[in-house]
Structure formats: C-alpha cells, structure tokens
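hey so u asked for the seq, here:
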Amino acid sequence: MNLQAVFNIAEICAQHGVKEVILSPGSRCAPLTLAFARHPAIQVRTISDERAAAFIGLGMALTTRQPVVLVCTSGTAALNYSPAVAEAFYQQVPLLVFTADRPAEWIDQLDGQTIRQENIYGAHIKRSFSFPVDTQHPDANWFAQRLLSEAILETKAYPPGPVQVNVPLREPFYPKPGETLEYNQEVKVIQEWSNAYELTNTQRAPLEEELTTFTKILVVAGQHYPDPVCQVPLQYFTRNTGAVVVADIISNQHNLPEVIRYHDVFLNGNATKKASELQPDLLITLGLSNISKNLKLFLRAFPAHEHWHLQAAGEVADPFQSLTRVIRCTPQSFFSLIPNGKEANTKTYQAEWLEQEKTASNYLQEFLGQNNFNEFIAFARILENLPNNSVVHLANSMAVRYANIISLRPEQNITVFANRGTSGIDGCTSTTVGSALSTNLITTLITGDLAFFYDRNGLWHNYLPLNLRIILLNNHAGGIFRLIDGPRQQQELAEFFETKQVLDARLTAQEFNLKYYPCENLQQLAENLNIFWKNGPGILEIFTQSEKNADFFQLYRQHSPFKSK
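ran it, structure tokens below
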C-alpha cells in the first residue's frame, strides 16, 4: 500500500474544511490513524466503542452542520456504525465514514476480521465509494483524489447525509524507521458552489396570487435545526396571510411569537373538538418528522384541500396523506412571498387556534402545578428551569413526548435536538456528548433509564465535556409501555415489555467523575435544580414509580377539557 496516498486523504479532507475526526482504533486502519492524527489542522478523538463513536460524531455534526469523519478498522467495527449512519441518513446529517478493509482478493477467504464491507450500509447511505488499493499509476492517483472530493461534497449536497469510503489496505501499515511522509499541498481538490434554491421571479408571482385564494393556511414545522434566517420571513408571512404555525419542539420554531406549541394537548385525531374550524384549506409543511401523533391523526382525518411541501431537493414523504405539491426552494425563500391576504377571514382562523392554545396552556399549567411527585410533573419542573440560551437533547422514548406536550417558553431561546430520524434509544447519550464537545453552551440530556444504561459507553472515553449535564428519569422500567393501550392491557406487560431493571446511576457517576444528585421528592428536585447547572458535569437522577406515573398520565387524559364525551 502506498502510505502517501493515505496521507493525501487527510490533506484533502483538511482542504475541504474538515476539522473533526472520531477514531475507533485498530490495526487495519493504522495508516488512516497516522494520517489524520499527524495532520495539524485536524483534531482526532479516540473512542473505542464504534457504536458510541459514530453517535458522538453524529452529535458533533448535528451541532456544527459540518461533516465529521469517522474512522474504524475492518470487520464488525464497520457494522457497529450502522445505527448512527441510519440516524444520520434520516436526519440528514453529514458524516464521512472511512472503513478500513482488506484487499478484495482476501474477502471470503477465511482471513480474520474480514467481512463484505463494500456498500455495507445499503440503502441507509447517500453514496458508497471504494478507494483504489493501488495508486501507483498516475490515473489511479487522480481517481483516488477525485473520489475523495466527490465523497466530501456528497455529504454536504442537499439533503446532507452520511457517505462511506471503503479503504482496502495492504501491509505494511506503518512507515519504516526513518521514512518521512508529508502532506502534499498540491493534491487535487474539487470545490462546489451549491445551489441557492431560491424561487425565481416567474415562480413568485403566481404563488403570491394563488395564496390569496386561501383563508385557512396552516404551517406545520417538522424536525429542523435552529434556523434564524427562516424565522424572520416566517413571521412576516404569518402576518401577511393570517397563517397559523404549529411547531413540534424538535422543529426549533418554539421561539416564534404566537406559535402553536400545545397542539399535542388539544388535537385528538378524528375526535378533535372544533375540528371543522381548525381544518386548513392550505397546509404548508417544512422540515422532517413530527413527534405528535395527535397532529398526524388530525391532519389525516381532516385533510387540507391543498398540501404544499417546501423542500429544496431530495425524496419527499407524505406523512399526512394529503400532499398535492412539492415546491423546490428553501423555506425562507417561500416565506418571503408577499401575498395580499384576506384579513378578516384569516384572523378568524388564527383566533380559533389561539383560543384552543390558550385553553390547553391553562389546563397544563393547572394540572402540572399539583404537589404530586411523578415524572410528568418532574419533567415540567425541569423544562421550566433549563438555562436560557442552552442546548437540550431529548432521548427517546417518553422524554421527547413529555417535552413535546409541555414545550418551552420562547424567551428561553433553547436549541432542541433528538434522534428522531430513526427514533431509537441506542445512541442518545453519545449524541449529546458529541454535541457538547462542539459548543460552549450548557448541553443537557434528558433521558430515561433504559436509554441511559443502554448507551453508557457514550461516557467511556477521555473527552467528557465540562458543559455536559444529564437528567435521568429512572422509573426502573420502560415506562412508555404503561401509557400505550395495547401493552398496558397485557399480563406480560411487566416482564416482557417494560423490562424491569434495578440499577441506578450513582456508580456510573462515580466511575466517570460526574457529580451526582439523587431526587426522590419535589423538594429534593427543587433544591437540586437550583444548583445542578452551576456545578460542572453531573447526573441528576429522579426516582419515580412506573405505575404511579402511568396513573397520573391517565388522569391528565381523563381531565382534559378536550376529551371527547
């Protein structure tokens, strides 16, 4: 193997602006390790557990919106990246995955640590490349360098996502004593000027005219990274058209004034009160998935006459079963349209939604203000006390649902992340660690016990950030199954669905040098929340009982003013 060609990989990445590498050590990937570790413009962190490593890289890329490189050895190491690669694919996060491999002639020859690695991530990768094993010929060297630029550009091309480069490597893996390898500044680098995805003047005029024909416009924002560039035109659009904006907490639109945040409380599928008044005639959607099942069921039961989805490029989903048009532009370009709205009618539509929003807000405030210790009320106290201008990661599965019901106040200015591309519990802690490594802001993970203990290896390394905080809701089970009618009614619930466990995080905190704050009542919770974010990295563990949590959540449903008679 020509080691200079591998060192060129690191140089090309650096010239494309790549700054972060997450490495899982091994023998086969040694040339890649040396190439990245010695490069002065690249920071390399070593994470032994490949599954955790990939999610840490995901968290870094989520926060920076820039490609992060993953490097692993051959064999099952590459397979362990799969959950994070799938999450990155569905959440549109740029990852560049280098998988070291044996040369093709040694695949399936009973050699150690060898599996079929080409295109190993199948349909869950934007593109998979195979690096040439021999780059001695000038054409092969040209091909190798061209391939790397293509791979890096592909991670960023809209929609962004993960890209694999499989790198077959022959021994020797290490430079000989006295052998000097340098970074060739003259490597071939291909740059790209990306499309602006703006509406043209010829597109704007008919859209502005068509918008005037609708009086009940509903904008639904799915999962999206924080985008201040979009928020200003969206505010103007709602004022000009009377549109209503509904935003799940993971849309990061909860900072908008008059945004509908409590839709999970007052929408109820085909049993929604005032459904005909709330039903839109034009639905405009942007972003990725929505958490709220109530919202999905409502929009399927009462579909809009027209449904326009705003997406610059890529495949488009139809989760509400009502899609009629795809508009290929950025949301900010669309929302800069200035139609002549029908003011009286549109204000009536806004008023209907705001009336429901106010009733839902009052009900939540009263219900969650009780002096009753359970995880729903604890969650409300947590969200109330989150530091302003901070970052929060919501683990699957009940944490993200509680947060979507309770929501955040606009003035808190909190950025929200969650692994809702595939909605798994497997990498929530690791993703938060990666995110915290990429910002100076306080970064808080709110998680359940199963998700936390599943991903403890996300803490097993030498890079725990000082801005990391973990809030663990420990009901000693998968409590969500007590809240779902199907499993809740089965005699196998406790053993085969909830998966009861007896662990707590005290020793985990001790092992990883984290401060530990146990809470068993509201007074302890209030006292600990007062100091938790001020005292450095730590775990705040809230102990509740799964059965009591379920009973209280059922009371929330039963007492709701929106409950169908």
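Residues 343-367 form the longest helix (25 residues). The chain has three domains: 3-168, 201-358, 370-559.
lmk if thats what u needed
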